[in-house]
Amino acid sequence: MDHGNRDGRGAGRRQFLMVLAAAGAALTPAALWAQARSGAGAAPPGLMPSQRALLDRVCDLTIPDSDTPGALAAGVPAFVALALAHGLDGAGAPVPATRFTGGAGPDGATVLDWLRFELDLKTGGAFLTAAPAAQVQALAALDGAAYAPGGPPGGDPSPWRVLKGLIVTGYYTSEAGASRELQYELVPGHWDADVPVGPHARAWSSDWTAVDFG
Amino acid sequence: MSAEFDAIVVGSGISGGWAAKELSEKGLKVLMIERGRMIEHGSGYVTETLAPWEMPFRGEGDAALYARDFAVQSKNRHFTEFTQNHFVNDRDNPYSVAEGTEFNWWRGYQVGGRSLTWGRQSYRMSDYDFGANKKDGHGSDWPIRYADLAPWYDHVERFIGVSGQAEGVASLPDGIYQPPMALNVLERYAKGIIEQRWPDRRLTIGRTANLTQEKEGRSACQYRSICARGCSYGAYFSTQSSTLPAARKTGNLTLITDTVVERVDYDAATRRATGVSVLNVKTGERRRHTARIVFLNAGAFNTNHLLLRSRSDAFPTGLGNSSGLLGTHIMDHATTVGAVALFDRFQDRTTFGNRPTGIVIPRFRNLDRQEGDFLRGYSFQGGALRSTWTRAKREAGVGADFKAAMRGPGGWRMVLVSFAESLPRPTNRLTLDPIKTDATGAPLLKIDFSHGENERKALADAGREASAMLSAAGGKVVLSLDRPGAGGSAIHEMGGAMMGDNPRTSVTNRWNQLHDVPNVFVSDGAAMASSACQNPSLTYMALTARACDAAARLLREAKI
């Protein structure tokens, strides 16, 4: 097992260096760590402005406005911040260094530290100031890797799955997400065991059994 | 010396409420003692109508608080931010477990107890169950058979209201039912396939204590399926909706709350219990209450705890423990996910409303002939549903396309959860922890429970059969488990004061009296001699009603 781990870290480090090289000479590991650390250790539940800006942008990209409000408009970042502060779904646990591309993250890194590092890496160093298309591409790449068939490298689920789970939960339990994007009915009043699905059917956010088992 | 009350009932949950109702309706002056707080029907259900976005943590709850104060309770599927007030604080209510074992003891200390949060599945036991101990030699032979309890099942079902379908299945006797809730389109289809391929199996709607017709001031179900928050419609059976109003109506009930019973008081001269010693947890005051009879309905394990704590010179190891068997042969059901399957069929069909029950496939193994390498049997509960937003946590994608893809109903899936009978074993037992105590100085209850090889074999068979049935119905099985969860996971913990005719091999007799102390009745799950594989609460209610009838008769005849 020890050999396996060392090999894994070695491969990760080589990959890390290649990515850095590809990203351009201006980007140094020291600069990235400095950025990552700027958010580490922040006292919950308040997020630092840079963390909040990142979370706002990522929520907006994950579930954007359409004919209904998206995650940002629905106030999801505040829920995610609360959930992170209280460790919902294991989100409070530090992200191990091996989860960072390159295999060597800072001690006690939070999910948002990790996210920022990975997205900055994919956008040449500054995700928040990158062009919208580049942001979308970076997040889609992160998401694709996190949900790749065969599981993520390293075994543990990607921290992105945890964070996306919180964004999704925050959105579909918000009033806009639960009752406008989906349908919400507290008192259905009757049970119909077999009805047709209409062409524009929306799922029920108030189907509690489906929420649990679906 | 004349007693304060005719009867004291310890506990106000499913069986305690029944004891209070039956005894008070027979004209007895009853004191019901609840350790937790009052929750009034309707006004006490503080989260009942709230939406997720009206909750501080959107219904998901405060994970940090749960880790600190609800470490065990929060593992329960019915424990949410909406229902957390109906579960105990684990930090304030500790128990211990034997080294190397695990036990999830899910509890609700409040008026109504777990009747507020129970799963409402209401099944009769059959003679396969009442005869099981005698047949294979595990545990103590039940002193009663189905015919003894059948009229009491009738009595209970008539009062609480159970909706379901009579099926004529020998392993799950029919009762008196309100009209059943309908199977959904996929369940109905699966039923057809399964019953054709396996003629000895039956898929039927879960028999549930949710009303489909109005009943005595209680409304029919509104199909919200948020029962565990409390239902101000009174559409499911709870102490609050049913037995407490009936008991109050007699004028014979006194209910005190926030009061822990610390011991059953015993008079060695008369060989009778004289009442109970209690602690008011709010004021710290200790006092005694006296009565001619005492009913123990504290919840199976707490009833054992109370008896074990009620030590005296006459009963140095616990009241009623001349057999040495008090606390032994405890059971649960061994449960796990038999199979989950995804279905392509019926994508153009869905359901409306939230049905508060699933389906059941009654026991079909080892009935009239022995099959396979395990004793007794198992049954399945589950159902079919279309996924909703929680699938978005599992699926790849971000952005407008992802949002659009998550808008409609998700695919159909069907779940079968296995419940295997737990054999009564002397080594699975409750004792008083020799060292650890709670804040009041009481020794903790120590739980030593493990599932055995028989349960593991039964669940392995159940996993294979669940997969085979869902596959036959056209499903793609994506998960099938065969290892039981930790003890307690079925929330059917029971036993420890098992019924039997022989005082040397059992703790309670055929009328739920302690063999040693005939004016003490144990009629909650503690009295169970075997577990069967169906949900036990209806049996506790029927045993309680029957025991109350016997108690009133024995009092009239001055025999206790």
TrEMBL record, chain A:
Family matches, as InterPro entries: Gluconate_2DH_su3, TAT_signal
One Pfam family per UniProt: Gluconate_2-dh3
Entry-linked PROSITE patterns: TAT
Superkingdom of origin organism: Bacteria
Name the UniProt record assigns to this protein: Gluconate 2-dehydrogenase subunit 3 family protein
Organism: Nitrospirillum iridis
Automatic annotation (TrEMBL), chain B:
Pfam families according to UniProt: DAO, GMC_oxred_C, GMC_oxred_N
Chain segments annotated as coiled-coil in the UniProt record: none
Residues of the signal peptide: none
InterPro entries: FAD-dep_OxRdtase (IPR006076), FAD/NAD-bd_sf (IPR036188), GMC_OxRdtase_N (IPR000172), GMC_OxRtase_C (IPR007867), P2Ox-like (IPR051473)
Glucose-methanol-choline oxidoreductase N-terminal domain mapped to chain residues: 219-310
Domain FAD dependent oxidoreductase: 6-58
Domain Glucose-methanol-choline oxidoreductase C-terminal: 424-543
The keyword Oxidoreductase belongs to this UniProt entry's keyword annotation: yes
Keywords: FAD, Flavoprotein, Oxidoreductase
Protein name per Swiss-Prot or TrEMBL: Choline dehydrogenase-like flavoprotein
UniProt source species: Nitrospirillum iridis
Top-level taxonomy: Bacteria, Pseudomonadati, Pseudomonadota, Alphaproteobacteria, Rhodospirillales
